[in-house]
Write a structure and sequence with these properties.
disordered N terminus, 333 residues, 0% strand, mainly alpha, FAST kinase leucine-rich domain-containing protein, single chain
């Protein structure tokens, strides 16, 4: 329920929730949305009973919720649901059951204040926040709300910073599938946005400005959408990935994801990336054996040297086989 490293703060938050419980009915929509959002951002999960009381308070004032409050609340519950899918915790499972109807209620209200034009045009920040929230919620989104979101993203796509551009690309591909109208949207606005993202990210790839998360989000978005960028773009992304891999800035999970996305696209073979990864793995194995040999020699453990070295060699081989099976298996085209 509370992360060990956050235990002192978690106890304070638990007391805060207890103190706020009786006052929840008097909270304004802004107070309620910011409270739940802050708790989620600090990775604190209130008790199911508290969440149920919050649901009742939100339901009583749902007609007063405007677009910013709705998006903040959806972002909070999106974060909770995303964490719940990655943690086998009874508390998180209970939360999924508690907030299901609340999410549906918030989405319906959001349609009223956005799709039917009772509020101003959605801001750039709201677009990105809502997109990520909907992906994390993994909840069905109506065609009208989906189309409205795409229209607003199209307005801001040219002004998005690199990190939000990559995140938007990732969110679009996953949201289309979750909404159940992916094939229809692929033929329209979503394809146009992905094409624009490809052009906008090309200079960033050429200058190696994308970090490992950016690279992974970009390539996964196109592979999930079954849309293959041109060969030059795919090559630029590989060159950037190789550079980060050599400097230690590309995490193993990112390497595996990138190779898997290349394989799923099936239109480009990242040979240089694969060879670089294999070379690094070989260097690591040889370095470990050399360091162990030097350590054993310096300690004059002649009698135990062969036994220890043989055991370590087997361990290194096992590590190498594990890495090969988990990472390089994705690279077999």
């Amino acid at each position: 329920m509370i992360c060990p490293q956050l235990r002192p703060r978690g106890l304070v938050l638990k007391r805060l929730c207890s103190a706020a419980l009786s006052a929840l009915p008097s909270f304004t929509p802004r107070d309620m949305s910011h409270l739940v959002w802050a708790l989620q951002r600090m990775r604190f999960l209130p008790e199911p009973e508290w969440m149920l009381e919050a649901q009742l308070a939100i339901q009583a004032k749902i007609s007063q919720f405007d677009e910013p409050c709705l998006i903040i609340m959806l972002a909070a519950f999106g974060g909770y649901r995303y964490a719940a899918r990655n943690r086998a915790s009874k508390g998180h499972t209970s939360l999924i059951l508690v907030d299901s109807s609340m999410v549906d209620m918030l989405l319906k209200r959001l349609e009223q204040v956005t799709v039917f034009k009772t509020s101003a045009v959605m801001s750039r920040r709201s677009c990105c926040t809502l997109l990520v929230a909907l992906v994390k919620l993994n909840a069905p989104v109506s065609n009208e709300l989906h189309r409205y979101l795409l229209e607003n993203i199209s307005l801001y796509i040219e002004d998005l910073p690199l990190s939000q551009l990559c995140l938007t690309s990732w969110g679009l591909s996953l949201l289309g599938k979750a909404s159940g109208n992916f094939m229809q949207l692929r033929q329209g606005s979503e394809l146009q946005i992905l094409a624009r993202i490809q052009n906008l990210t090309r200079p960033h790839l050429a200058s190696s400005a994308c970090n490992s998360a950016d690279l992974l989000q970009l390539l996964v978005s196109f592979s999930e959408a079954s849309v293959s960028p041109d060969q030059e773009w795919l090559h630029l992304l590989e060159v950037c990935a190789v550079q980060h891999l050599r400097t230690g800035l590309l995490a193993p999970t990112a390497v595996s994801g990138i190779l898997g996305a290349y394989k799923k696209l099936g239109t480009y073979h990242p040979r240089t990336l694969i060879l670089t990864l294999q070379g690094i793995m070989t260097e690591i194995k040889e370095r470990r054996l050399h360091n162990l040999d030097h350590e054993l020699s310096s300690r004059h453990l002649i009698g135990r040297r062969k036994v220890s070295l043989s055991s370590t060699q087997r361990h290194v081989v096992e590590l190498s086989q594990t890495a090969n099976s988990s990472v390089l298996a994705d690279a077999r085209f």
